[in-house]
Every structure is written in structure tokens, then in C-alpha cells.
Write a structure and sequence with these properties.
The complex is a heterodimer of chains A (394) and B (307). Chain A has 394 residues and is of the alpha+beta class. Helices cover 26% and strands 30% of the residues of chain A. Chain A is built from ten helices and 21 strands. Chain A has a six-stranded mixed β-sheet, sandwiched between helices. Chain A has a six-stranded antiparallel β-sheet with strand order 20-14-11-12-13-21. Chain A has a five-stranded antiparallel β-sheet with strand order 15-19-16-17-18, with no helix packed on it. The longest helix of chain A is centred in the middle third of the chain and has 18 residues. The radius of gyration of chain A is 24 Å and the shape is elongated. Chain A starts with a strand and ends with a strand. Chain B is mainly α. Chain B has a domain of 212 residues: MetI-like fold (Orthogonal Bundle), CATH 1.10.3720.10. Helix content of chain B is 75%, strand content 0%. The chains are: A alpha+beta (394), B mainly alpha (307). At the A-B interface, strand 6 and helix 2 of A face helix 9 and helix 10 of B.
Chain lengths: 394, 307
């Protein structure tokens, strides 16, 4: 049980590139902290620095009440679950789980007892004498977990532990992992590139981009109050819609409608060269649906309708110039060129009620929730008017 | 292959008429499976015969004595163990066996010990000119042995390792050629072991040395066995250094000792005793290969693919 404090932790490679830049983060005792970001954002490097597998160039790392910068991984009282599980192929499950205790010269009977206890928690009792090669993917994953929990360490470090499982097993294991962490109450740092995992598992989530911490907060904070375009675009599925906005006189022109913001917001928006407005898919509803009273409406032709049962996802495009922002391009690159975010014609995704009657290739009347729009500066990516209640009205 | 044949080839091969295809199929059907297996087993028998006949011939000769030796009979008319008896009663040959055992074992142990550390460094650590270093190590094994035999003879005479008892003067020269082999085999094995396994061991509280001895080495066991056997064979059979750097029975290894056989019976060619001695030296190698057969094959192929 311990708190982990990163204070200005930096990783600089010999060639001068920085993997992690000046990262300061406090992970409370017993907290489940997620490091999330696209590949190459430095999240794994950060985790490996906490583990002691990567040297810390600058800054200070504290686990519990010790500065551990110069301690070997084995002395840091942490356990790590690797993406590949890294089970020792030549040892049985029992020996894999007991390896660390054996190295620590724990008496044999105690090792046996602790291994069996961990095996019981993870449902591995029947497999203790088998070798990793004879286990299924899910079982291997649990052995890797078991290896971590028998040590009763101050913290668990997990590096994408679910990414080698198939989709169904991943969801199931995710729930088990969450339950296990809550039960053990051990401080956990968990690295993933999957925003769904981040949202569902974490007490708090730290979003990283290009070696820098972007925002730390509870999943709902990140979802509702992102500090910049990157966090807004990275968190949430389907992703937030981004549209160009222009201040004209006392109102703001969006591709499908004009809005009149509060004077404070208008003041802020005037100072910005290029404004981007962010709309969550669920903030668009069919006009007339419950709760849409007083929302501005607009007519648009629907391109595609995906009835999901619980909701209906509708896609449409709006005219207007394309949204360009470096931070959004980064996300779309990471998602393999899926241009949904910064597409040429500004595609918009809307999550409508399941009883919606909108149809493909027909014009529908939709309504937009004006109170929850997020405004960004396209050039810096920063969100405008954070903290202030700057609701726009029609 | 020229461009023309490549150009005309695909069209001709890719689109045979359906009639041709039917014919081809019926022709294939016409070859009964028993003919195939007869052909296969005949070839195997021929190859085995070709490889094993010399060995059979040595065994055959070792069981002959007297006049039989000069008659090239395919099997001994009057089989006798006389040659074996005389070889095993020959004090010099027993000394040579002792020396061979010492030289081959020590060479193997040293080769593996030094080689595994060197190979680990080459496989894992980052340092400048690594590829060049591995290249130099490998190129040593291509030197002709005779090229270093003469300078070694001079050096060994000066420092007193020439004709050293127990064949101790042969160990270092053997290492010159067995170490590169060991390093080469082990480097490719160590490279295949995922780095994360070592990191897991480190996090589990192992020191670097423990993660090497408890995780890396056990996983590289097939490579260690392969390297050990190949080194042992090389040192056991080594002839040129043995004949150049020794001069008395106290120092000679078996290959050199056999060359100095004079025959236990006067006026008789030592052919029978040489053969008997050869069979005796072969036995440990054959036993080792049979015991570790599977490991050797695994080791050789793994090294071949990844090297």
C-alpha cells in the first residue's frame, strides 16, 4: 500500500529526444490510475520508469515514503504485469507465481500457502502444475496477475495487460480486474491505448500526448471537461464531433446553424483566430424528442443510420470548411487514418433515441444541446472558457 | 534464370489445357504407392550404407588379426578381441584417453562459461561496433589451423606449455576455435529469448546475475547442449594441435597417440589395433549424440534460422 509521486520526471534519450517530459503526477494510495494515450505518447516509458526498467533522466520518483530513483526494480516493492505476460516458460504455474517469493527467501510453506491463495482468487487451482505453454490466453493472463498479487506489493504496474485477449474475454477480464483491484485495494498504475478501458477501469485517468501529460481526472471529468482538443477527441466513443465556428457580430456561425453565446463567451471567442466547436454525439437529438425543448434545430440529410437497439447512430455531413488542428490530426493518425475526426466535409455522428424515425437519404430535423458545447482554439488546441459557466443560448 | 525464360514460363505453366491436367493426374495416379516407398527406402538405404560403411569397415578390421588383416574380407573370418585387449593393456593409450577426457571436458566447460557471457553481451547489451566484433569473432573460426600451429609451437616452447602433462597445453589452442563457435550458437539463442522475461525477473527481485542464471540460461538449454556437444567433439577429435604441441605419451591425446601406434605384435602392421582404438574413441561420441539427439537437431536449426 503506497502512494506514488512523480515529480518532474523526464526521460531523455542519448540522441536528445524526450520520451517523457517533466511529468508530475500523484497516484494516491489504493487508487486505480490509468495512463492512456496513442502509441508513442510515452505512457509505457513512464510506467517502465516507475518500475525501474528505464532510467529516470530528471525529476524524482517516490513510492511509499522512499525516493526510488536509484533503486533496482526488485527493491521498489512493486509488481508488474507485462503485455506479453512474460511468464517463465520453463517453470510451472506454481513456480512462476512463487518465483519472487523464492528469490526473497520466503519459507517454503509460506510460499505454497500464498501461491495457493492467489490461485484460488484467480481460479487457477487446477493448473498449478502446468507449464505456461499448456494454458489458454486467458489463463496465462491470470497467471501473470497471480505472479503480481502473491507478492503483496506496494503497487501493481500493468502494461496493456488485456491487449492480447480476444474482444469478449477482454471485457470479461476487465471486469474481473476491476473487482480484484477493489478487493485488494492496492495502488495500481495501468497503461492502455484503449480509451474504453481507461474510462471503465480507472478511478482517475491521465491522458498523455507526445511525452506530456495533458489532463488528469476522473473519467467523467475528462469526458465533460476536457482541457484541450486532444483529450476531447481521444476520450469518448464514438468520438466528439468537431466543427469550424466563426464569430460574426454578436453571434457564432456553425456550419448548420447560428448561435448567440453569452457576452463573456463571445468576448473570449473574439480573441481567437480560428474557433472549433466540439459536440458530443449524444448532444444531438431528433427535434421534438424528450428534453430537446428550447434547443436550436436544423435540417440535414442523413447519410447512414445504424440502429444499435438501445440507441440509433446517425451520420450526416455538413458544409463548411474542413477542421484542421494538429492535435486532432495526431489522434486520427493513431487510429490508422480513420478520418472521422478531421474529415474533409465534416462528418457528424449523432446518437439519437432508439425510437427515432430518421431514415437514410432523407432530410431530418435535428436539435442541438446548446448548453454543453465545448469551444476550442484550433491553433493551440486549448479549450476556451474553462471553469466559467459560459453556456451559449439561441 | 534469364528474363526470357521467366517471361515465357508463367503462361505455359499457369494455363495447361484441361486435357493435359487430366493426363498429368492419371500419370500421377499410375505410380502406385508401393513403388514410391520402394524408391524411398532404396535411397535411404543407399545413403545410410554410404555413410556407415567406413565405420563398419573399422569395426570389421578391429576384429581381425594376423593374416586376416591383409585380406579385404567383408567380415572377419576369425573374429577376435585381441586388438581391443592389446589396446586396453597399452599404458600409453590409456594415458591418451585420460588426456583426451581432460582436454575435451575442460575446453567444453571453459568455452561455455566464457562463451555464454560473451554471447549474452553480444545479444543484449548495446555497445558500439557490436556487429564488427561478432564478425571478427566469427572470422577467427575460418583461420587455417596450421597458420597458428607454428607460432604457437614456438610460443608454447618458450613459456613451457609445450608437451605439458595431461595435454594442458592443448586447451587454449582448442578454445581459439571452439569459442567462436560457442559464441555464435549462443548469441542466436539468447537473441530469441524475449527481453521482457528478464525484466519480469528483475521486477520479481532477481539481480542481473540471477535473471541470467535462473531465466536466460535454462531457456537457452538446447543451445547450451548443442554448443557443448559440438565443442566436445571438436576438442576430442582435434589432431593438428595435438600432434604439433605434444611429444610424449604423458601429454598426447588419443588422435595423436593413435598416430604413434607401432603395433603390439612385432612385424605386424598396427592396422588392427588402430581400428580397435578408433572404435573405442568413437564410443563416447556416439553415446552422447544418441542421448542428446533431439536437442542437437533443435539447436542446430534454431541457430541456422536465427543466426
Amino acid at each position: 500500500m503506497a502512494q506514488i509521486v512523480l515529480d518532474g520526471v523526464t526521460k531523455r534519450y542519448p540522441d536528445g529526444t524526450e520520451g517523457v517530459r517533466n511529468m508530475s503526477l500523484t497516484i494516491e494510495d489504493g487508487e486505480f490510475m490509468i495512463l492512456v494515450g496513442p502509441s508513442g505518447c510515452g505512457k509505457s516509458t513512464a510506467l517502465r520508469m516507475i518500475a525501474g526498467l528505464e532510467e529516470i533522466t530528471d525529476g524524482e520518483l517516490v513510492i511509499g515514503d522512499r525516493i526510488v530513483n536509484d533503486l533496482d526494480p526488485g527493491e521498489r516493492d512493486i509488481a508488474m504485469v507485462f503485455q506479453s505476460y512474460a511468464l517463465y516458460p520453463h517453470m510451472t504455474v506454481r513456480d512462476n507465481m512463487g518465483f519472487s517469493l523464492k528469490l526473497a527467501k520466503v519459507p517454503k510453506e509460506e510460499i505454497a500457502q500464498r501461491v495457493e491463495e492467489a490461485a484460488r482468487i484467480l481460479g487457477l487451482e487446477d493448473h498449478l502444475e502446468r507449464k505456461p505453454a499448456n494454458l489458454s490466453g486467458g489463463q496465462r493472463q491470470r497467471v501473470a496477475m497471480g505472479r503480481a498479487i502473491v507478492r503483496k506489493p506496494a503497487a501493481f504496474l500493468m502494461d496493456e495487460p488485456l491487449s492480447n485477449l480476444d474482444a469478449k474475454l477482454r471485457v470479461q477480464t476487465r471486469a474481473e480486474l476491476s473487482r480484484l483491484q477493489a478487493r485488494l485495494g492496492t495502488t495500481t498504475v495501468y497503461v492502455t491505448h484503449d480509451q474504453t478501458e481507461a474510462m471503465t477501469l480507472g478511478d482517475r485517468v491521465a491522458v498523455m500526448r507526445a511525452g506530456e501529460l495533458q489532463q488528469v481526472g476522473t473519467p467523467m471529468e475528462l469526458y465533460n471537461e476536457p482541457t484541450n482538443l486532444f483529450v476531447a477527441g481521444f476520450i469518448g466513443s464514438p468520438s466528439m464531433n468537431f466543427l469550424p465556428a466563426k464569430v460574426e457580430g454578436d453571434h457564432v456561425h456553425l456550419p448548420m446553424l447560428d448561435m448567440t453565446p453569452t457576452p463573456e463567451l463571445l468576448e473570449e471567442l473574439r480573441r481567437i483566430d480560428r474557433v472549433i466547436v466540439g459536440v458530443r454525439p449524444e448532444q444531438i437529438e431528433e427535434a421534438g424528442a424528450p428534453g430537446t425543448k428550447g434547443w436550436p434545430t436544423f435540417d440535414v440529410e442523413i447519410d447512414l443510420v445504424e440502429p444499435m437497439g438501445a440507441e440509433t447512430v446517425a451520420y450526416f455531413t455538413v458544409a463548411g470548411e474542413e477542421v484542421h488542428a494538429g492535435q486532432l490530426a495526431e489522434i486520427s493518425r493513431d487510429r490508422g487514418g480513420d478520418n472521422r475526426i478531421s474529415a474533409g466535409e465534416n462528418q457528424v455522428v449523432a446518437r439519437l433515441e432508439s425510437d427515432s424515425t430518421v431514415q437514410r437519404r432523407s432530410v431530418a430535423k435535428l436539435a442541438l444541446d446548446p448548453d454543453k458545447l465545448l469551444w476550442f482554439d484550433a491553433d493551440t488546441g486549448a479549450r476556451v472558457g474553462i471553469g466559467a459557466a459560459l453556456a451559449a443560448s439561441v | 534464370m534469364t528474363a526470357t525464360s521467366a517471361g515465357s514460363g508463367p503462361g505455359a505453366i499457369a494455363r495447361p489445357s484441361s486435357a493435359a491436367r487430366t493426363r498429368a493426374r492419371s500419370r500421377r495416379k499410375a505410380t502406385p504407392s508401393w513403388v514410391k516407398s520402394v524408391l524411398m527406402w532404396t535411397s535411404i538405404a543407399a545413403i545410410v550404407l554410404f555413410c556407415l560403411f567406413p565405420i563398419y569397415w573399422i569395426v570389421n578390421t578391429s576384429l581381425k588379426a594376423g593374416a586376416d588383416l591383409s585380406r579385404g574380407a567383408l567380415w572377419p573370418d576369425n573374429p577376435t578381441l585381441r586388438n581391443y585387449r592389446s589396446v586396453l593393456n597399452d599404458g600409453d593409450f590409456l594415458l591418451a584417453l585420460r588426456n583426451s577426457a581432460i582436454v575435451a571436458t575442460t575446453t567444453t566447460v571453459l568455452s561455455l562459461f566464457v562463451g555464454s557471457f560473451a554471447a549474452y553481451a553480444l545479444a543484449r547489451l548495446r555497445f558500439p561496433r557490436k556487429a564488427l566484433l561478432l564478425g571478427i569473432v566469427l572470422s577467427i573460426s575460418t583461420f587455417p589451423v596450421i597458420a597458428i600451429a607454428a607460432p604457437l609451437f614456438k610460443l608454447w616452447t618458450d613459456i613451457g606449455l609445450y608437451d605439458a602433462e595431461y595435454g594442458l597445453g592443448l586447451i587454449i589452442p582448442n578454445l581459439v576455435f571452439t569459442l567462436p563457435l560457442t559464441i555464435f550458437i549462443l548469441t542466436s539463442f539468447f537473441r530469441e529469448i524475449p527481453r521482457e522475461l528478464e525484466e519480469a525477473a528483475l521486477v520479481d527481485g532477481a539481480t542481473r546475475v540471477q535473471s541470467f542464471t535462473k531465466v536466460v540460461l535454462p531457456l537457452a538449454a538446447p543451445g547450451l547442449v548443442t554448443a557443448a556437444l559440438l565443442v566436445f567433439f571438436a576438442a576430442w577429435n582435434e589432431f593438428l594441435f595435438a600432434i604439433t604441441l605434444t611429444s610424449t605419451p604423458e601429454a598426447r591425446t588419443v588422435p595423436a597417440a593413435i598416430a604413434f601406434f607401432t603395433g603390439s605384435v612385432k612385424f605386424e602392421a598396427p592396422l588392427g589395433t588402430i581400428s580397435a582404438a578408433s572404435v573405442i574413441v568413437m564410443v563416447p561420441l556416439v553415446v552422447l549424440v544418441l542421448v542428446f539427439q533431439k536437442r542437437i537437431v533443435a539447436g542446430l536449426t534454431a541457430g541456422a534460422v536465427k543466426g
